[in-house]
Specification:
4-stranded antiparallel β-sheet; alpha+beta; 25% strand; single chain; binds zinc ion; 119 residues; GIY-YIG endonuclease
């Protein structure tokens, strides 16, 4: 079973996001719901600069995404690479709503660690 290697799940509300992510930092997140004790991943994403703000944009995104998990990275590149790994680990899942492979931001020539895309 693939692992997200993230903290949570927490309820996807602004107060909980502020409680968990207290500084401006790049990082990763997953949105989903809980069945029994399993976190079902619906969407994975990243923030290159400000995880707290990016996550809040998803609060009203979908009514079925009630929980989030997250992890913090030191750099945007680390967040990109982790997002790629999460995408490949969970991309086979019928539940995942991500349609496209993660892409590097701006003019960055980062490589996906999980496939030849951008390699
Ligand atoms: Zn890839």
């Amino acid at each position: 079973m693939a692992s997200l290697s993230m903290d949570g799940p927490y309820v996807l509300v602004p107060d909980k996001i502020d409680e968990q992510i207290t500084s401006k930092t790049p990082g990763n997140f997953a949105l989903g719901y809980i069945v029994d004790t399993d976190f079902v991943v619906l969407y994975i994403g990243r923030a290159d600069e400000d995880l707290n703000t990016v996550l809040k944009d998803f609060v009203f995104w979908r009514s079925d995404c009630l929980f989030f998990k997250y992890s913090i990275t030191k750099t945007a590149k680390e967040a990109f690479e982790k997002e790629c790994i999460n995408y490949h680990d969970f991309g086979e899942s019928v539940n995942l709503r991500n349609i496209h492979h993660p892409e590097p931001s701006g003019q960055n020539h980062w490589k996906c660690p999980g496939c030849v895309k951008f390699g």
